[in-house]
Amino acid sequence: MNEYEYTGNKTRNYFTAYLQKCIRWKRKNYLQKKEKIRDMEERLEDDLQMEYGMTVEEMAEARYKEELLLRECDKNYPEWDELSDQRLVASLLLLREEERRLIYQHVFEERSFEEMGALNGMAKERVKGVYYYAIRKIRGLMRGEK
To answer: Quick check: 99 and 122 in contact, CB under 8 A?
Structure first.
């Protein structure tokens, strides 16, 4: 037998070459699609930023805030643990129950001090005092004062 004669299986070699070519083509096609998607996303983000003057993340945050406001219009107020500023939540949880209740009624339910006094069986001036003391306490806690 001559050293230049082929002794292997030609069918197996053709099939292997075919598989390698298919894999290369699939990989190339996949990478092209990924690149096209990335380019389109970048263009979309740029277009949105130019049109609305804000990024996609800022738009999502604005939409979340709008949904919160719409829920508040329906008298569906957030719970303490749904607030986004964790330092504020921690400060609010350190307040007494009475202080939290008055802040909630004034801020979220938009009640006047007269209404709050009638609801809680307190004088209007006492409600104001407790409310403003709680606000000062929150400010101090958020600054890191004890």
So the answer is: no
pLDDT in tens, 98-142: 998 998 888 878 889 999 999 999 999 999 999 999 999 988 887
Q: Cα dihedral sign for 94, 95, 96, 100?
A: negative
Q: Check: CB of residue 99 under 8 Å from CB of residue 133.
A: yes
State the burial class of residue 33 (Cβ atoms within 10 Å of its Cβ: 0-12, 13-18, 19+).
exposed
Domain that holds residue 136: 80-143
Dist. CA 23–CA 17, nearest whole Å? 10
Verdict on whether the full-model pTM lies above 0.70: no
Domain count, the chain: 1
Q: Is residue 108 part of a domain?
A: yes
Give the contacts of 105 (CB within 8 A, at least 6 positions apart).
111, 115, 116, 119
CATH classification of the domain holding 127:
1.10.10.10
Q: Kindly state whether residue 37 falls inside one of the protein's structural domains.
A: no
Map residue 14 onto helix, strand or coil. Answer: helix
